[in-house]
């Protein structure tokens, strides 16, 4: 049966807040995973750009003694080459973790705000309910 307008508004705000928090949790989880997995690429490209004379040309000791323009260019190219497989690894880790934690199943439809009925987390979700097969 339909809810009253005041109750409908309250449920809409609750469901919207819950869905927004779940979205932010997914975004934070994705950011952490991608940052950790892509850290080698970030470091290699950073040092390549930092020591190249046409970009930043740092006055650090390791830039003068170890890295010249050719080796800095090699680091930049290496960093961008290893980025592609690491992106695939990061996405696989995120998808595996999201599936294991069932993060995508927790989003609630706004139809719960219009009609009376308990949300999935209140009535106990079926174990057969999955976001993907």
UniProtKB/TrEMBL annotation:
InterPro entries, per database record: TMEM88
GO-annotated molecular function: PDZ domain binding
Locations listed in the record: Membrane
Chief location of this protein within or outside the cell: membrane
GO cellular component, as recorded: plasma membrane
Domain of life: Eukaryota
Membrane-spanning residues: 21-49, 74-94
Membrane topology qualifier: Multi-pass membrane protein
Keywords, comma-separated and alphabetical: Membrane, Transmembrane, Transmembrane helix
The family this protein is said to belong to: Belongs to the TMEM88 family.
Protein name: TMM88 protein
Gene this protein is translated from: Tmem88
């Amino acid at each position: 049966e339909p809810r009253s307008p005041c109750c409908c508004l309250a449920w809409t705000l609750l469901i919207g807040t819950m869905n927004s928090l779940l979205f932010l949790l997914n975004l934070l989880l994705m950011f952490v995973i991608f940052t950790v997995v892509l850290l080698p690429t970030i470091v290699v490209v950073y040092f390549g750009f930092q020591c190249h004379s046409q970009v930043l040309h740092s006055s650090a000791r390791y830039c003068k003694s170890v890295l010249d323009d050719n080796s800095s260019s090699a680091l930049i190219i290496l960093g961008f080459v290893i980025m592609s497989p690491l992106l695939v690894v990061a996405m696989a880790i995120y998808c595996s973790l999201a599936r294991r934690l069932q993060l995508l199943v927790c989003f609630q439809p706004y139809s719960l705000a219009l009609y009376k009925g308990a949300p999935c987390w209140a009535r106990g979700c079926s174990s057969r309910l999955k976001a993907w097969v």
